[in-house]
Every structure is written in structure tokens, then in C-alpha cells.
Amino acid sequence: MTQRDETRGRLGFGALIAVAVLALDQASKYWVLHGLDLPERGMVRLLPVLNFTLVWNRGVTFGLLNGLGAWARPALIVVAIAVVAGLGLWLTRAESWRVAGALGAIAGGALGNVLDRLRFGAVVDFIHAHIGSVSWYVFNVADAAIVIGVGLLLLDGIAAPARGESARGEKG
């Protein structure tokens, strides 16, 4: 397999991960809104530590920047699209399958949340993990994919020196 074929393979893998995350995110949100009817039910207890609780997030991850006014929604959409474009460019240069998959997960998650903002004016969050009164932010599949993707990129960056590479994947 040539270097060019390998690069194309990683690009295709990252794109496949992005599409899969986007599809899973949008399907889960559709089911929560229309199948489970969470807007009517409000909350569904799944486990002692996990509920489905509907939250319309008008801010960014974990509700940050929530309530910044009318300009926030279009600004967040533009920033997210710019980030996805940057991730796409990075994906064309990904030096490993792990990085390609991580970039695809982040891009797919970002696109899922952008679609929500375009359709609803807010992101549909519904996964609520908690232990007793200690509660985590309510999130969705897209958010989880973004966090996992960022975590994989961090691990890859930490592991690169141990493999004798620079953070860009070059042998040192």
C-alpha cells in the first residue's frame, strides 16, 4: 500500500466516523424527542445514576455562554462550522488512524450540534449522569463523541514522545 493510499484510507476512516457519529447523534435526539416523547415526560429514570432529562442548551458545551443574547446562536454556528472545516483540513494530514478517528468523532459531534442549532435554535441535551445529589451536566451523543475525540488526541500527543515522534507524528 502506498503512502497516498494510506492517507486516503485514514481520510475515509475519519469521514466514516464523522458520518456515524452524526447519524447516531441525530437518531438518538429524534428518538428522545418523538419516540420517548421526553418533552412531555420531562425526565425518565434509567438507572440509579442515569436519567434522560431534556435540556435545551442555548450555550456551548456544558451550557457555557448560555444567555449571551440574540447574536450568540449565529456566532456559535459560524464558529462550529469553522472548527469543522479546520478539523477536515487536519484530517487530510492525519498521521495515524487514531488521530483520524478522533478528528472524525469531534467533527461529527460538532456537526450534530450545529444541526440542532439550525433546526431548533438550541442543542438537544438529554443524558444526565449523577450520583445522589452530585450531578454531571446534561449532555448528548455528540458531546460524548467530542470529549472522546479530544481525549484520544491528548493521549496521542502524550504518547508521541514515547514512540520517538514529535506531536506531528514525525520521527525525531
List keywords for this structure.
single chain, 172 residues, alpha+beta, 60% helix
Concise summary:
This protein is of the alpha+beta class. The chain has helices at 3-35, 38-41, 72-92, 97-120, 141-162; strands at residues 43-47, 50-57, 123-131, 134-135.
What oligomeric state best describes the polypeptide chains here? single chain
Number of helices: 5
Strands side by side in the biggest sheet: 1-2-3-4
Strand segment tally: 4
Low-confidence stretches: none
Give, in order, the helices and strands. Answer: HHEEHHEEH
Largest sheet: 4 strands, antiparallel
Report the helical percentage.
Answer: 55-70%
Distance between the termini: 24 Å
Structure description:
This protein is of the alpha+beta class. The chain has a domain of 110 residues. 60% of the residues lie in helices and 14% in strands. It contains five helices and four strands, in the order H-H-E-E-H-H-E-E-H. The protein has a four-stranded antiparallel beta sheet with strand order 1-2-3-4. A hairpin with a 2-residue loop joins strand 3 and strand 4. The longest helix is centred in the N-terminal third of the chain and has 33 residues. The model has no long low-confidence stretch (mean pLDDT 87).
What topology emerges from the helices and strands here?
Layout lengths: L2 H33 L2 H4 L1 E5 L2 E8 L14 H21 L4 H24 L2 E9 L2 E2 L5 H22 L10
Antiparallel strand pairs: 1-2, 2-3, 3-4
